[in-house]
Amino acid sequence: MNKMLDCLENRFNQFLVGLAVLVASSIGALAVLIPLNLFLTKAGLGNLWWLYGSIEYVLYFGVFLAAPWVLQQGSHVSVDLLSSSLPEPAAKILDKIINLLGASICLVLIVYGTRATFIEYIDQTMPDKDIQIFNWIITSVFTLSFAMSAVEFLMRLRFKRVLILKSDDFVLDGS
After folding, report:
1. What is the DSSP string of 110-127?
2. pLDDT value at position 175?
3. Is 11 exposed, middle or buried (0-12, 13-18, 19+ CB in 10 A)?
4. DSSP 8-state code for residue 170
5. Is the separation of the CB atoms in 99 and 153 below 8 Å?
6. What is the mean pLDDT of the chain?
7. DSSP letters spanning 128-163
8. Radius of gyration from C-alpha coordinates of the chain
9. How many CA atoms lie less than 13 Å away from 42 in the CB half-sphere?
């Protein structure tokens, strides 16, 4: 059972890293496209009319899809000040309580998001914007992100976790 859970966790970790790379790439693309659009506009060559609407979606999707990876890296909101002042056994209990509470909150938001996604799908509503994406797609990303966050909170309860890739693993060494 542990070996199967280790394999599942490893695949989940790889999926989260892939999403983080995708989100980082999309933000990098925005950093190139915004000045390009400014140049095109100032040079009188037209503009990228779709860019500013796309930025809104990229940031929305990016924040929600990268949140589980940020949580996995321990870079999310935490109570280090409180847990560092407690004895180690009490800090471990507090950490378990926080992870269970986080998973519980995520489950409530999954229920909310699922209901909203079904309602939006049935209604087929779309926002009043230049770039239109069905609202059910937006709410499904919300739901998916909280499902992944719930899994990450529950994985944090494991006694022995599978190796988690840290940002240092991606640094190229010149030697």
Report:
1. HHHHHHHHHHHHHHT---
2. 39
3. exposed
4. G
5. yes
6. 86
7. SSSS---HHHHHHHHHHHHHHHHHHHHHTT-SSPPP
8. 20
9. 6
Three-state SS for 166?
A: coil
- 54, 29 in Cβ contact below 8 A? no
The residue type of 21 is V
Chain center to CA of 55? 16
Q: Cβ(127)–Cβ(46) under 8 Å?
A: no
Tokens of 30: 């925005």
List of residues 6+ apart from 134 with CB closer than 8 A? 120, 121, 124, 125, 126
Q: What is the distance between the alpha carbons of residues 66 and 12, in angstroms, rounded to a whole number? A: 13
Q: Which of 7-11, 12-16, 30-34, 166-170 has the lowest mean pLDDT?
A: 166-170
Q: 76-81: long-range contacts at Cβ-Cβ below 8 A with a sequence spacing of 24 or more?
A: none
- Span 57-109, pLDDT tens digits: 999 999 999 999 988 887 766 667 777 788 888 888 888 898 899 999 999 99
What are the residue boundaries of the structural domains of the chain, listed by start? Answer: 2-162
